[in-house]
Amino acid sequence: MFQQIDQHYKAVSYNGRDLRDGELIRCTFERCTFVNASLEEITTSSCRFIECDFRGASLNASTHMESAFENCHFGEANLFVSTFNTCKMTGSDFSGANMDGITLVQGDWSYTNLSHTRLEKQDLRRVRFYEADLSNANLTKADLRDCDLSRAALDNAKLQGADLRGAQMDGVNFKTLAVTGARMDREQAALFLRSYGAKVD
Fold this sequence. Notes:
It is built from one helix and ten strands. With 201 residues, it is mainly beta. The strands form two sheets. The protein has a six-stranded parallel β-sheet, with no helix packed on it. The chain has a four-stranded parallel β-sheet with strand order 2-4-6-8, with no helix packed on it.
C-alpha cells in the first residue's frame, strides 16, 4: 500500500503499473495515463484527474470521495463495485466500461458518455446527468429520483420500472424511451404527453 498527499503530476505514464490499495489525497494528475493499470481498491479523496487515460484499467472496488475526473477516458475499464461519492465526472467517456454494482452518490456526471452502460436497479438519486449520453443504456428499475436529466440523450434507453419522480427532464425525447411501468410525477407526465402532440392544460 502507498499514500500520496498534495502531489501534482503532469503527463506521467502509469501504464500497466500495479497501484493496488493505494491512497491519494488532494493530488492532481494532468494528462497522465493509467492504461491497463491495476488500481483495485485504490481510494482517492479530493483529487483531480484532468484529461487522464484509464482505458483498460482495473478499478474494481475503488472508492472516490469528492474527487474530479474531468474529460477522462475509461473505455473498457473495470469499475465493478466501485464507489464515486460526490464526484465531478464532467466530459468523461465510459464506452465499454464495466459498471456493474457501481455506487454513485450524487455528483456531477454532466456531458459524460454512458452509452450502452448497464445501470439497472442502481440508486442514482440526485445525480446530475445534464446533457449526458445515456443512449441505449439499461436503466431498468433504476432510482432516478431528483436527477437532472435535462437535455440528456436517452435514445432507446431502457427505463422500464424506473423511478423518475422529481427528475428534471427538459429537452428529453420521450418518443424514443421504453418507459413501461416507470413512475413519473405530473410534470414529467405532461412533458411525455406533449412530446406526442397532446395539449396539456
